[in-house]
Design brief:
Blueprint lengths: L8 H15 L11 E2 L1 H7 L4 H8 L3 H9 L6 H10 L4 H4 E2 L6 H5 L10
Antiparallel strand pairs: 1-2
């Protein structure tokens, strides 16, 4: 299977679905309140769970558990994952929910409205 190209419909659907998986958790549904962007980061780079798992030295199921918030990583694993994506750990994991990607890309604007 080939990786979807950025901007393609297939790519956008995968990113949207990955964001839903990580943002639709019920309150308290994540382990210890730890939130992550692992699914979004993986999909936007066109990676499989297996590829991420092999790169950080875990089972692909572990990546799935992390993405769904069913498992909290050790500090070592969190650092390996952040290093793999070349991001600071706080860009991947957080104790507070991440703002939706759409809100970060397209912040609300104030228009004067009808006159």
């Amino acid at each position: 299977m080939t990786a979807p190209t950025p901007g393609g419909l297939r790519f956008l659907l995968r990113v949207r679905n990955a964001a839903r998986v990580s943002s639709n958790r019920p309150p308290g549904g994540t382990v210890g309140g730890l939130h992550n962007r692992l699914a979004v980061l993986r999909v936007e780079r066109g990676l499989t769970r297996r590829e991420v798992a092999e790169a950080v030295g875990v089972n692909p199921q572990t990546v799935g558990f992390l993405e769904r918030g069913d498992y909290g990583p050790s500090v070592e694993l969190a650092l390996r994952i952040a290093g793999y994506f070349d991001l600071p750990v706080e860009a991947v994991f957080s104790l507070t929910p991440f703002a939706p990607m759409s809100a970060q890309l397209y912040p609300p604007t104030t228009t004067g409205g009808p006159a």
